[in-house]
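Worked Example 4.2. Read the sequence first, then its structure tokens.
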Amino acid sequence: MQIAFVAGATGYTGREVVRELVGRGVRTVAHVRPDSSRVDEWRARFEAGGAAVDTTPWSDAAMTNTLLALQPTHVFSLLGTTRARRRASASRGMAESYESIDYGLTALLIRAAVASGSRPRFVYLSSIGVREHSTNSYLVARWRAESLLRASGLPYTIARPSFITGPGRDDSRLLERAGAGVANVIAGLARVVGARRFAGSVRSLTGAELAAGLVRHAFDSTGENVTIGTDELAAV
């Protein structure tokens, strides 16, 4: 039986990944933070769509126990914070950061997946532009998470999409939408001059497009231990 555990299930891409997995007949467990103010809403929403809901706290022991019991075949890590959430957490005296969320929670999930013993395919949503020796704190956190995953011994699929945008987001992300528009214009110009591969690498994706690509590669034997970009994610 194929069993998928989705961390970051309540996000824009996560919701679509859950929908895509359920549509494929995969037993899907959507993780929701136990301290979420919308936990009951998310539970009703996911269960109505055919997924189970898990509210394991973010601790090594708790997450390891959950994955030991579940024995997933696939783990999706769709975690990340934003500048707006970082500012909001700072105003509440908390310490949400790229280091604690984008790297820290992903690292915790990798450790739990390893400890589960089921060697699940670990599908990690990273970002375009990730590379070693970056000075950008967001990209540094993503590179560290990628490096830990590659060294973990787990089979993996790392995705580095360009801008993710489209209708249905809970936050407006005006800068991201503007950037996606610019990226799509650049992609269009690149196609005109014949640079189709470059055009495919920079175009934006909707959450549904990205989810379809992530799930497709997650269950493809040729998608194991590879790093894929927007062009591969968008390919049908």
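Now turn to a second chain, presented in exactly the same format:
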Amino acid sequence: MILTPGASIAGKRVTRSYGLVYGNTIRARHLGKDILAGLKNLVGGEISEYTKLMAEAREQSLARMKESAASHGANAIINLTFSTSYIMGNASEILAYGEAVVVEDA
């Protein structure tokens, strides 16, 4: 599956569009990780526990979006975008969305 944030793929042409596809996940923080993050906040630097959590969420959202596109028969997703939103005090959503298409060599 080809993924691109652009509207086109070099050397390919879109022959069919299936429209919008998306994948999302909502992840909650872990109390133990919150404590470690709070301590890290005192001294500064990257909060690697949250970085890992968000990376896993992005990958899961991408996988779900690709599944949706493949179920329609698409072999590419163009105009790929990520969005995040705050759900509640300890949970965030990651949403990946784009246009499912079939591309062929130009």
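Notes for the reader: The radius of gyration is 17 Å. The chain has a mean pLDDT of 88.
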